[in-house]
Give the backbone structure.
Amino acid sequence: MKHTLSVLLQNKPGVLSRVTGLFSGRGFNIESLCVAETLDPKVSCLTVITKGDNAIIEQITKQLHKLIDVIKVVDIDEGEFVEREMVLIRVNAEEHTRAEVLRIIDIFRGKVVDVSPNSYAIEVTGSSSKIEAIIDILRPIGIQEIVRTGKIAIARGRASKKGVT
Amino acid sequence: MSQISGAQAIVKCLLEENVDTIFGYPGGAVIDLYDELSNCPDLTHVLVRHEQAAVHAADGYARVTGEVGVALLTSGPGATNGVTGIATAYMDSIPIVILTGQVPTPLIGNDAFQEVDIVGITRPCTKHNYLVNSKEELVEVMREAFHVARTGRPGPVLVDLPKDIIKDGIEFEDRKPIRMQSYQPNYEPHMGQVEKACRLITEARKPVLYVGGGVILSDGATELTELATKLNIPVTMTLMGLGAFPGHHELSMGMLGMHGTYTANMAVAESDLLISVGARFDDRVTGKLDTFATNAKIIHIDIDPTSISKNVKVDVPIVADCKKALTAMNSWFNNQQDISVEAEKAKHQDWFNKITNWQELHPLGYQDEGEQIKPQYVVEMLDKLTNGDAIVATEVGQHQMWAAQFYRFSDPRRFLTSGGLGTMGYGFPAAIGAKLARPDKICIDIAGDGSIQMNIQELATARQYNTPVKIAILNNQFLGMVRQWQELFYDKRYASTVMDIAPDFVKLAQAYGAVGLRATKKSEVEDVIKEALAVDNTVLMDFKISREEGVFPMVPAGKSNTEMLLV
């Protein structure tokens, strides 16, 4: 089963490799991983999507917490949460497809962030299934390049407080 | 405030931590630190002959004292040579701090001479590690390193020290209590869990205490013995747990697992309650997992939450320091109005009788064959002639298992062995570290003829510092443990395990200025050991044992613990 773990880390050199090394060394799976600074510049937040039964997820959260630089581990799936992913797509935009591409972007509430004589670079944010959907729809028109961020997530309502020790 | 050099600050930090001995090997990156050490009469530096030995010696020092051991290595190859020692300490949760030199900060990442990313290399085999990025953080990092190494589940911590930071001048700030936002180990047991565990014990009729190295690390042997004897609960120990409970006690069943006793393995299989204290359900202990202790409820006391329910599902987990948890359980039994300790004890009498029966049916043993030297006999004689009170280090292999089976440790912190990583070459340097820590104790390294050659160069270290370690080589001219597997499971194809080309160990010892003794007949064994113990020098005893002796009982890999091959 998929799990989204939100991990607060000391923002220091080498901390990310401690986390990824733990996953590879112990044979845990990483589906996607995102990391960036939080409000406190000394702390980073890492969102990792991983797979496994309950026993494996329990081990992953415990092992993460055992790392000296890990401040807190929250299994976001334990409560209500919102997750988002962003994608940047460079898609063919010839004279006869431009209007069609713009309509699709509009439907998905995307934005054009760069224009060239024969392509658009567009930005779309949403759930993974929404991202998959726009990619599927644009594919026949001709996608030149895709860059995806990986998922980030936040608990609904209050700040995620349920740490796993 | 006046400035001092980084090297002076490092030495001051070591003294703050009450370090009196460090083990190391110099090199270009740490030359300034060595220069400073030579000015410091309160710190003894022990010059080893290979960096791996420095780390093992620091580890041996830590195991017998319970204090943090310290090793000092230079950059590049000095550091990489130490990695086996670091991984050894990590697997066995031994508190050591390893200081490594690093090339100057501006050169890091440039493939400079003797540069290696030792922090990257040791990330998975240290509890934590640091590259000191600036001189301002040097002192804080040193203090944190010791704190992390000794607290919680102990382990090795590496501090990588760039040469410029060792040289630069810094302000040395006074010690403050260490606060680490993301590291606050828990020691105190949850009293509700303690009560649950104790209630389970009162319901059990066939309980077994399964005890590991955590009891020794937490100095909880006295509390463990109190609990076992108060309630008449038989005790089995892991390799790392040997010494946590007196080996000669009638409740001791000896070691369990792959080379455990018949009694211990049968008792665990039949028990209705397994009380695991500071042990981690390692594959060498459990054998085939689906058949391990299937009739038992399981209580698991461990300071590390990741150990709990990792391999075996646990009914009552207690995340706490073993000593504190055992103390809490003892006082629960002492103070509970509705519980009579005598009545609890009586509940286990039938079980105890059954265990005694097993012990009589299949005691540990071996076939005596005239004047052939049986390795088990050598260990028995070592036990007898040292009253079970020596510090015994081992290498890894058959001799290690014979030492574990036939030397009956009466006290904790007496048995030094690489339990987790299984490092050949560990024992001799560890014994040197132990002897320097406890000069009053007899220190023996029980070795094989293969293992001893992995760090034989340390004879020079032992001689230089007058550490009269006694090495007992159980010499069968084989890499015996692998040979035993080949005999049993590979149709006796002894691929690369024959070691009949070896040095004359007696002459080799003499070449180093140590004493070499040899026994080729059973009747010579006792005299050789007596002579070795009487000499005030490093002694190497070469026992030519019967070559194809096996370690039994043995649970073949992947089988259930009850499917033991017996003698």
Notes: The radius of gyration of chain B is 24 Å.
